[in-house]
Amino acid sequence: MYDYSSPFALTPPGAEPKAAFAVKRLRRALIDCELRPGDQCSEPEIAGRFGLGRAAIRAALTTLAGEGLVTAEPRRGWRVAPVTGALIGDVIQARRAIEPGLAALRLSADEAARLTALTRIAAALQGREDRQAAVTARSTDRQILDHLAARAGGLVGRWLAEAWNQADRIVAFFDLAGRHHRPIGREALVAALAAGDAEAARRAIDAAITAFQDFATDGLLTLPSALDWAGTRDGERTRQTGPDAMAPQAHPQRPPQQGDRT
């Protein structure tokens, strides 16, 4: 049954303008790596695959290019942005610059109760190693974050959403190689925001970013060969994604770490 209550549910076509639906549908396809990083695709191919009109596709791709998810290639169509060590480093840096500002939020009792219920769903999945459990835990975590981004509002809310979209895409990319990320619990963050404890909230935010950084860095260093095929199409092997998309080097480069000297 279609879950209309889910913040991740896609509104059926016809319930909103086709262009708006196309943006949502293609954004989700890009974040989930349904359209794989590094893939080249044409507007007719995308239109046929997703059952959307050419005009809506073109408008949607233009919007998503502004979010850094695709790039236009003259006379060739569109290229899905590759996942590279440089991208991972940028996402971590952006998150560390923006997310700590959420610590200044104060949750109402009703908000705290709703978000606490979500943390309990994630907690109930602890100990399960299957991919579906990890996906559900990440979806629950994103619902919490989206609520906080909505509270932040304006440019900050939009920047947060775009940074988290890229982080989710990176996680989905590693999923393709069989490496699944489970976010840390948000109980401490929700409790701190409900109590107005900004310092505790900042510590919880930092811990979550560090957990993502450790996961992505470890993935780059331990799974470089498995990532090569993540951007292939039609059985052709390419090196447009993964560590090999970076400048030539003997080993994949880890994202920048706090405390590194420049």
Describe the structure.
- Pfam families: GntR.
- Residues 245-262 have a biased composition (Low complexity).
- Residues 16-83 form the HTH gntR-type domain.
- With 262 residues, this protein is mainly alpha-helical.
- The protein contains 10 helices and 3 strands, in the order αβααββααααααα.
- Strands 1-3-2 form a 3-stranded antiparallel β-sheet.
- Helix 5 (109-124) runs antiparallel to helix 8 (187-195) and helix 8 (187-195) runs antiparallel to helix 9.
Task: Report low-confidence residues grouped into runs of 5 or more.
Answer: 1-5, 7-11, 228-254
- Biggest sheet character: 3 strands, antiparallel
Mean pLDDT: 83
Strand content: under 5%
Question: What is the alpha-carbon Rg in Å?
Answer: 19 Å
Sequence of secondary-structure elements? HEHHEEHHHHHHH
Protein name: DNA-binding GntR family transcriptional regulator
Organism: Inquilinus ginsengisoli
Keywords: DNA-binding, Transcription, Transcription regulation
GO molecular function: DNA binding
